[in-house]
Write a structure and sequence with these properties.
Distance between the termini: 63 Å
Radius of gyration: 22 Å
Structural class: mainly alpha
Number of strands: 2
Shape: globular
Strand content: under 5%
Largest sheet: 2 strands, parallel
Length: about 475
């Protein structure tokens, strides 16, 4: 933390004052950096919990004698539940702050993981996965908003690192599953896979409860200027003092909640909402249709062996780690919209090549094409939908925006998880992959048509004066 003598000084009267102070930073101080990654750890947990079921799905199916319908329901339960809890958590975080929902998500994550790990029936596993979906829905919407509020403008591209963390988490769970396989754990390998998420969730709960500091931007948006100034001192070492409060009209303050959702679909937010939700929807469909089923694709390429399929999936996920790591740089150099468009264009071509040539491609190409698909997905649209949403709205409605985006992204996940096996059953793996090339094509068209890019607009959302009240209804006779 900076010393008072060298700290940035400023008076806090509104959220825009908080943003202006943070934007003066060229890098995050040590404590702010620690808190930033601690929040990001929740997204690691979300990805890890999702991967846990995928990695141990085959042994679970055998042990519990699950039907194809039950398998489909289990794989889609968490994202389906998240559809409801993304916007609900956005509303909750707008009302009570960012930290409490994040802590609640970790407790629910512990319960969901343990319930699944000790399950003896389909119904219990389903209940556990539903709780995982609740935690996922709460955490993702709130964490992305809080990361955006902690980050100076010069470093906004680092929000895309959540995509790298996603693949690190997925690879970590696959590695654990492989270790359990090598140790001869046998049919209960899936219990270790999903149960380990409870340990991570519990550790994150303790750390976040001990160290997380409430967002100064949110505090200022609620008129808690003394608390906002105090937290700016605690996080960044700023010499910040509360100023005279710039009050919002009482009716606007009271409107914070679901009534505000309508403003996301009015000017100037409409194109921002459309672009972030369309990217989130299409990227999640292509990932959960292809990326989530990488073990199946690995089996088809490398042979019908659990160990080979797992190692193949880990190699494919390494492409996601690399792509996610460079996405922050690419997003900063090209802009989030353009980098998304390039990623979609490459994904479209690669899915066509993989699908049309599946089964006849040389082994090198059969491996290289899905590897490149994951790379361009994670370096482009995979990260950008949520990042665009987190950067496009003012503080008091930011979590509502990320919640709505997350809801539609989860809807895309459900569609991908259901559509892929159904089409695959009727058409085969190759034609299914080729058919799904239409998804990145739709994403590419969205990026071309909608011009908004928060990293290129020069607009600070907290400086915009927006009427948050619903549009008046014209009087009728």
């Amino acid at each position: 933390m900076a010393s008072p003598s060298t700290a940035v000084a400023g008076t806090v009267s509104s959220p825009s004052d908080v943003v202006a102070l943070i934007n003066k930073l060229g890098r995050l101080p040590r404590k702010a950096n620690f808190l930033w990654y601690l929040i990001l750890g929740g997204l690691f947990l979300d990805a890890y919990s999702n991967a846990a079921l995928s990695a141990g799905l085959s042994p679970m199916v055998k042990e519990l004698a699950l039907t194809p319908g039950q398998v489909g329901l289990l794989t889609a339960t968490a994202p389906a539940v998240a559809i409801l809890f993304n916007p609900a958590s956005g509303w909750l975080a707008a009302r009570i702050g960012r930290v409490k929902p994040l802590l609640l998500a970790k407790l629910i994550g512990v319960a969901g993981a343990l319930l699944t790990a000790y399950a003896g029936s389909f119904e219990t596993v389903w209940a556990g996965r539903a709780l995982v979906g609740v935690a996922y829905g709460i955490d993702f919407a709130v964490a992305m908003a809080m990361l955006a509020e902690y980050t100076p403008a010069s470093l906004k591209g680092r929000l895309n690192l959540w995509q790298c963390v996603w693949y690190v988490a997925t690879t970590s769970n696959l590695a654990l599953t492989l270790i359990c396989y090598k140790l001869g754990i046998g049919a209960e390998i899936w219990r270790w896979s999903v149960g380990s998420a409870a340990v991570i969730a519990g550790a994150l709960f303790v750390l976040q409860m001990a160290f997380l500091v409430e967002s100064p931007s949110w505090l200022a948006s609620r008129g808690r200027l003394a608390d906002a100034a105090q937290n700016l001192r605690r996080i960044y070492g700023f010499d910040a003092v509360p100023g005279e409060r710039a009050d919002m009209p009482a009716e606007v303050q009271q409107s914070i909640g679901f009534r505000q959702t309508g403003v996301l679909f009015r000017k100037p937010y409409l194109p921002r909402t459309m672009l972030s939700t369309l990217i989130s929807l299409t990227q999640s469909m292509q990932y959960f249709a292809i990326g989530w089923y990488l073990p199946v694709i690995s089996l088809a390429i490398f042979g019908e062996q659990f160990e080979k399929a797992t190692v193949g999936s880990m190699i494919f996920n390494a492409a996601g780690i690399i792509g996610g790591a460079v996405s922050a740089y690419v997003g900063r150099r090209m802009g989030l919209r353009t980098s998304s468009a390039v990623g979609y264009a490459m994904a479209f071509v690669l899915l066509l090549v993989l699908g049309l040539g599946f089964g006849s491609l040389p082994t090198v190409l059969a491996f290289t094409v899905p590897f490149l698909f994951i790379f361009f997905h994670s370096a482009g649209p995979g990260a950008n939908g949520k990042s665009i949403a987190a950067l496009s709205y003012r503080s008091d409605i930011r979590t509502l925006g990320t919640g709505i985006t997350g809801m539609l992204g989860s809807f895309g996940s459900v569609v991908g998880l259901y559509v892929f096996p159904l089409i695959k059953e009727s058409m085969g793996l190759g034609p299914t992959i080729a058919t799904l090339a239409v998804v990145p094509l739709l994403g590419l068209i969205s990026c071309i048509v909608i011009k908004w890019d928060p990293t290129r607009s020069g607009i600070d959302p907290d400086d915009e004066v927006i009427d948050l009240l619903p549009a008046p209804v014209p009087a009728t006779r």
